[in-house]
Design a protein that fits this description.
The structure is a single chain. The strands form three sheets. This protein has a four-stranded antiparallel β-sheet, with no helix packed on it. The protein has a three-stranded antiparallel β-sheet with strand order 1-7-3. It has eleven helices and ten strands. Strand 4 (108-114) and strand 5 form a beta hairpin. The protein is 41% helix and 17% strand. It is globular. The chain has 294 residues and is of the alpha+beta class. The chain starts with a helix and ends in an 8-residue tail after the last helix.
Length: 294
Amino acid sequence: SVDRHSAAMLRCAYPGFCALAPRQAFSPAPLCGESPLEEPLARSPRHQESPVSIAPSAASCNHLLAALPQRELLQLLDKCEAVDLKFGEILAEPGEPIRHVYFPTHSAIVLVTLMDDRASLEVGLVGNEGIVGTALVLDMAVSPQRALVQVPGAALRMEADLFRQALEGSPELQHVLKRYVHAVMAQLAQTAGCTRFHVVEARLARWLLMTQDRAHADSFHVTHEFLAQVLGVRRVGITRAATTLQGRGLIRYARGNITIRDRAGLEAAACGCYAADKLSYAQSMAHPPLRPAA
């Protein structure tokens, strides 16, 4: 659950979004979308935590770590620490050196590009399918976006220098993370096309599904204004789309509280981009490494 202070902090920086209600089952899926962010949050203080041994079973909750061979996974875990991410905590800022990478296991981090003093754009949401700090994979030491905890919970954290060392010494880790970066690039392109060509109702259904996948929740609270900014449409368009989905028994929407009632029906109502995102992730992660030419 989210304490009142943390919730208030995030509402100041992430207008229209409120705490998520927990749900029992979680099926991870990729997310790209847009959202506003008005004021930066100060990076939350964190107490130094004593190193503890991390069981491979805990790391297996993250799909990237689970894809590593056992030996390389154990070597990587030896350099990680288990952390509990707090709601609204800032993990990285644009233009600042990346201090840590994060492998979410039961949490989600939103990636935000700051456009100017008032506008911003949500460019991704990372759950247990991914990693925060992909710039290091591309040999870049500075974060291009703000990373903000949207769904609190567990993650594995590694210092940037240790991550670089692990990356240099592990061709398999390089391959896994390069495949993930490829999947993210494909999803960003899919989102651009979705925003241009698909109707609001289908795009709203897609957004709700992707949020549910990352949020570990069937219910969450968002305002019409927030949804309008996420999808780039007028508030009246959101009202009509949400009313239609509710009339079909797919969601319950009252005073900004959304509950997904029929996930299968919502998937049928969503545009093909939701399935395309999941497929592109699966294909990217399953691609074998290229062999050098003889």
